[in-house]
Fold this protein.
Amino acid sequence: MALTGRRILLGITGGIAAYKAAELTRLLVKAGAEVRVAMTEAASRFVGAATMQALSGQPVWTDLWDDRVKDAMGHIELSRDRELILIAPASADFMAKLAHGLADDLLSTLCIARRCPLMVAPAMNVEMWQNAATTRNVETLRADGVHVVGPASGGQACGEMGMGRMTEPADILADVQFFFQPKALAGRRVLVTAGPTEEPVDPVRVLTNTSSGKMGYAVARAAREAGAEVTLISGPVALPTPVGVTRVDVRTARDMFEAVKRDAQHADIFISVAAVADYRVKNPAAQKIKKANGHLSLELEENPDILAWVAALPKPPFCVGFAAESENLAQNARAKLAKKKLPMIVGNLAQEALGRDDSAITLYDAQGEHPLGRGSKLELARKLVEQVAGRLPPRK
C-alpha cells in the first residue's frame, strides 16, 4: 500500500465539510497510514470523536489540557513522531491562526510547534474564500512552505456556488501519496499519451478500440508523484485528470500527432501508452451512411506512427513504447523495440489488460526482459516510472 507505515496527524476544524474527514480517514488507513486525529471544539459539533476513533483505530485528541496527557509537554509531543500534519477541512479562521502564529487550542499549538511538513485543505463559503484577508493568509501560508490542497468549485451547503468546497477525500489522498513519493523525476518534463483514438466513418460512426486509458492515466499520475511536470495527451475516455497533470484532449490519431509534435521537443521523457488507431477511413462520409442491401467497403489509409516520429527526432526524449499484443508477446515486443529504435518498451497481453484495473507487464530493453509482475495499473505505473528514472542520463 502506498502509505504503509506513514505517520499522519489529521486535524479537523469546524465546518460542514468536517463530515468528509471521516471518509478521508478511512482512505488514509486503507492506504496503510497510521492516522492520529486531533479536532477543534468547533469540529466536534459536526463530527463525533467516537466516529473518528473507530475509523482511525486510535484515541482522538481535542483538549489542550487532556487528562490522558502524562507529560506536561504532551500537547507538543503528539506531533513529534508524525511525518505530516494534514488539516482537512481547514476553516478560514484556522488558516488565519496559522498565518499569524496563533496557538490558543490543541490543534493550532500542534501546528505551530511542529517539526514535520503541514498540508491544509481549505473549506469555506465562496465569499470567505475570496475575501482579501483570506487571500493574504493563503499567500502567507504558501510562502511559509505550507502545502495548500484546493479548494474546489461547486455547490456549497449554504446554497451558493463557487470556490471554497473542500477537495474530495480521494483527491486529498492522491496529494498525500504524491507528497510521500520519492521525487526521482524532479525537474523533468514528461509527455504521456493515453486512451484510444476515434477515426470517423461518417458523422455518427467511428473506428476505435476498447482501450480505457487507465494505464496511461496511471503512468501520468505516477510521473507526477515522482516530481515531474506532466502533460497528458488523451483520447476520448471517461477518467478524471490526475492531480497536478496538464491534460490535452484529442480525438483522432492525427489530432494526437499534432499535439505530440507541439510538446515532444520540450520533453525529457515520452511515454506512448495510447492505443492509436493504425488506420483511418480515407474519405469519411459527410452524411450518415444508410443501410443498404449489400456489403459496405471502406478504403483505409495508414495513420502516422507517433512514437517512431518522436524517437527519430535529432535530440529525442527518452522514449518508452507500449506493445499490447494478443499472442507472441516477447517476439512482437522485441521486434517493435528494434524497429522503432527505442530504449525501452512495455509489453502486455491485450486480453488481460484492456479495460481492467489490473494487469501484468514486462519491460524489454537492450539487456533483455524484466517482468514487473501483476498488480493494479497504478502500482505497475509506479514501478515503470522508477525503472525509467533509473535509466535516464544525468542532467547537464
The chain has 13 helices and 20 strands. The radius of gyration is 25 Å.
